[in-house]
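2024-03-11 09:14:02 INFO receiving multi-entity request
2024-03-11 09:14:02 INFO entity count = two
2024-03-11 09:14:03 INFO echoing inputs for audit
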Amino acid sequence: MSSQRLMSWALRGYVVVFFAYLFLPLLVMAAATFNDSRFPTVTPWDGTTLRWFGELAADGGMWQALANSLIVAAGVLVVAVPIGIATALFLNTVSSRAKPFLYALILSPLLTPGVIIGISTLIFWRQWGVSGGILLTVLGQATFIAAYVMLMVTARLQRFDRTMERAALDLGASQWQMFRRILLPYLRPAILSAAVIAFLQSFENYNTTLFVVGYDTTLTVYIASKVRTGLTPAVNALGLILILVTVLLAIAYEVKRRREARVPGV
Amino acid sequence: MFRQLKARFGGPLAAAILALLGIWLIVMVTLPQLQMIDYSLRPNLLPAQLGGPEDRWTLTNYVTLFNNEIHRAIFFKTLWSSVLVTLLTLAVSYPLAYYLAKLASPRQAALCLLLLIIPFWINEILRTYSWFIILAFRGPLNEVLMMLGLIERPIRFLSGDAGVMVGMVYAYILFMVFPIYNAIESLDDNQVRAARDLGAGTLRTHRRIIIPHAKPGIATGCIMTFMLAAGSYAVPALLGSPGSRWFTQIIYNWFFEGGNWNQGAAYAFLLLILCIGFMSLVMKVFKVGLGDIAK
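2024-03-11 09:21:47 INFO inference complete, emitting structure
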């Protein structure tokens, strides 16, 4: 028994170390924002400053990249969310011998490295005269983000009670009314969650974007290029702001999700 | 298929569903991949030569990798390093997933899961960049090690593959923790208790009861981690040096520095084959299907 107790305490210690490992790097990066040093570091500490936030705000390239990222993310939502919903409805409705094959094809974008999705998109659209830029970035990202939307909508759709559907039709609703008034409201939380995840996936994507972005720049591409050339703690200031926004968003999302999980039924 | 959709949703909606699915699977998923393979089988020609006698299928672009010693070495290094990253990530993740699923109280588990999700929501570039600061030549890790008297002068962490691998384990750890956690969580506690009562020790319980049950989760985590590691561009670009290039960086150079898209397409296809090969191997070894992976 005592060896089991020992194991359990060792495991607890391990969990503490694990979370330190998970968060220390982010804290170091955040701390380096306030160091009055030309180079982003925490050693040596050259005094505390807020000037890197000012430098960041004065950087026109950053604002342009941020605007591009938001445009791309909006485009991805418009393309990927309807595709994801349609695919979930398709999988939930159809039974056919071709289904296992189709299912593999539907999942394949999740199991393909992002760089390859970017490369194939870039090559495919060249013959139609479309070269790298915001439009191709939207198409490339939506290719795999649609699969994430599909998974999230499917998870909720599987718990849908189809007697509600039949009841609506028996009471004289048309199929469109049933879809509009019963199914879509039921799926709404999953669709909203999927939209949040899709937005974030798009906003932070690098591997696919790198190949299809052309001469435009998204915020992630901008950060990566800054790290490699012309690195200053202004990058940390941007990182810190992004981390704070994401943490707030993540917490809000989790709270909402848990509140919904507690309410049974619709 | 259309009939089943029409019976449930009516004609117009059924048509819209099939149209969206068709556009996605054909125009966005399948045709671009086929086009990439077609590109990889053709020589790099001037626009005037396209459609001419030289514009035919050939394996030249694949032979290039075979003949280029440096590229070949980088290809295999990417393969082995990605396997190593996958194993390291598995070793680091398994105890945590087990703790969350079986030992933590519901409140502890909920808090830990939230804490795990937060870094997962943060940009991969930023997570990698934070390691760039820590591992820098005059960065905090070197300072701490020198202060403790463990080393006499700073180490160049950022000039080899080690830095890249540390960054990758950190970046992809959650893709391993979550599938394994989900799998272990569905294990009935009574099975573990029964094993203990029948005299099995901790290691034996894991080997004979918990790990076999967690197989689909372990397989999913390994497949995702390997795919992300082998296909990573951000981590080696930020934490690597010219001496520790990754295969994705070679591919990028063919496209945007060498200007030879056909050659780049061949290399990209080889990377894809590598990932598919690894996935098939893992699925075979663990005896799991595609349906288990999507869970």
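2024-03-11 09:21:48 INFO post-check: The CA atoms of residues 29 and 241 of chain B lie 34 Å apart.
2024-03-11 09:21:48 INFO post-check: Chain B has a mean pLDDT of 87.
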